[in-house]
């Protein structure tokens, strides 16, 4: 008896439709700021403005306030330059590192009205400087501003449209289903006593270290059960989850402390197996989850593993924090003071240069 045939999509009966659409014009402007460090202390309310750019028949500009918010936060605004009529638009900002292709998360500004030669204060986005450290390159900063101008709505003619529902792609689902599957695995790891199965070709596809081990010129003919003693089983499984699914495992069941500890261990494993994307995702996760309770522990970790961007983010977080006493009282501070005393001098120097909120 052969395998069951795959069910075919069932065509739906035609239906009469009309659609009300809102047309929009989109455009993106890159604002390059050379000599960024010279702009950092222009003072509150001072800004630099991009050259005019056109989207949807209107001229626009980006205003960048290097010191425009509380505690030294930087501010971005969209300004409409064209005279007369009111324009309705939305936009998003993000920072780009054009050398590496790395991009920050987007800061979205919802659709609103812009009057002639004015800014809408509700269109303001702000963030701390440490959020852009990994995107600055050679003392230069690139700001991406993507603008969508909304036009008058239109209603289409009535049409008979046959609708076919095409099933979504299930490639990632099938690849992810191989994760920890014993029946088809061809390599076994013994991770601190726990046996974990995997697939050599999948691991080699995602990690240069695994590729060299399984298919390189010095590969072993009979690997047997590969012993791994320097990675915890839970961390190794989390790394495999990323290899098979290109995503971090669900850590909602973890508390904040346990989650950050897992991310730190996972970052070390990513570095060991030369998985650059996973390493970057872990660093971003640690940067975005800093708190007075965790920053000292994360700073000690960054110093010990020579993670410059993460270290700078921690130092700047402490320098701008108005809860330095809480940081000193945290459990991680004693370990930081004992293991990395020199880094405390950097924190003090940074704190003396920038006022706290």
UniProtKB/TrEMBL annotation:
<dbReference type="InterPro" id="IPR011333">
    <property type="entry name" value="SKP1/BTB/POZ_sf"/>
</dbReference>
<dbReference type="InterPro" id="IPR056423">
    <property type="entry name" value="BACK_BPM_SPOP"/>
</dbReference>
<dbReference type="GO" id="GO:0016567">
    <property type="term" value="P:protein ubiquitination"/>
</dbReference>
<protein>
    <submittedName>
        <fullName>Uncharacterized protein</fullName>
    </submittedName>
</protein>
<dbReference type="Pfam" id="PF22486">
    <property type="entry name" value="MATH_2"/>
</dbReference>
<comment type="pathway">
    <text>Protein modification; protein ubiquitination.</text>
</comment>
<feature type="domain" description="BTB">
    <location>
        <begin position="185"/>
        <end position="252"/>
    </location>
</feature>
<dbReference type="InterPro" id="IPR008974">
    <property type="entry name" value="TRAF-like"/>
</dbReference>
<dbReference type="Pfam" id="PF24570">
    <property type="entry name" value="BACK_BPM_SPOP"/>
</dbReference>
<dbReference type="InterPro" id="IPR000210">
    <property type="entry name" value="BTB/POZ_dom"/>
</dbReference>
<feature type="domain" description="MATH">
    <location>
        <begin position="26"/>
        <end position="147"/>
    </location>
</feature>
<dbReference type="InterPro" id="IPR045005">
    <property type="entry name" value="BPM1-6"/>
</dbReference>
<comment type="similarity">
    <text>Belongs to the Tdpoz family.</text>
</comment>
<dbReference type="InterPro" id="IPR002083">
    <property type="entry name" value="MATH/TRAF_dom"/>
</dbReference>
<dbReference type="Pfam" id="PF00651">
    <property type="entry name" value="BTB"/>
</dbReference>
């Amino acid at each position: 008896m052969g395998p069951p045939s795959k069910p075919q999509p069932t065509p739906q009966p035609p239906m009469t439709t009309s659609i009300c659409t809102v047309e929009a014009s989109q455009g993106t402007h890159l604002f390059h700021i050379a000599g960024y460090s010279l702009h950092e202390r222009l003072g509150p309310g001072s800004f630099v403005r991009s050259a005019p750019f056109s989207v949807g028949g209107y001229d626009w500009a980006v205003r960048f306030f290097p010191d425009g918010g509380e505690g030294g936060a930087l501010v971005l605004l969209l300004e409409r330059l064209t005279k007369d009529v009111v324009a309705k638009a939305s936009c998003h900002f993000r920072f780009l590192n054009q050398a590496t292709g790395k991009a920050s998360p987007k800061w979205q500004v919802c659709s609103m009205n812009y009057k002639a030669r004015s800014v809408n204060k509700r269109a303001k986005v702000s963030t701390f400087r440490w959020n852009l450290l990994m995107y600055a390159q050679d003392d230069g900063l690139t700001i991406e501003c993507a603008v969508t101008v909304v036009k008058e709505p239109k209603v289409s003619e009535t049409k008979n449209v046959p609708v076919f529902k095409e099933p979504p792609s299930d490639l990632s689902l099938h690849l992810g289903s191989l994760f920890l599957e014993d029946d088809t695995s061809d390599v076994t790891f013994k991770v601190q006593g726990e046996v974990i199965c995997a697939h050599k070709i999948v691991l080699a596809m995602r990690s240069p270290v695994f590729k060299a081990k399984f298919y390189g010129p010095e590969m072993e003919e009979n690997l047997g059960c590969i012993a791994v003693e320097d990675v915890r089983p839970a961390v190794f499984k989390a790394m495999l989850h990323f290899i098979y699914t290109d995503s971090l495992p669900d850590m909602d069941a973890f508390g904040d402390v346990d989650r950050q500890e897992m991310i730190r261990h996972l970052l070390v494993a990513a570095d060991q197996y030369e998985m650059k994307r996973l390493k970057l995702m872990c660093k971003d996760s640690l940067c975005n989850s800093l708190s007075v309770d965790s920053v000292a522990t994360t700073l000690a970790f960054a110093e010990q593993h020579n993670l410059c961007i993460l270290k700078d983010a921690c130092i700047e977080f402490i320098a701008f924090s108005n809860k330095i006493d809480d940081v000193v009282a945290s459990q991680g501070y004693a370990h930081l003071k004992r293991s990395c005393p020199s880094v405390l001098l950097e924190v003090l120097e940074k704190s003396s240069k920038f006022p706290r909120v």
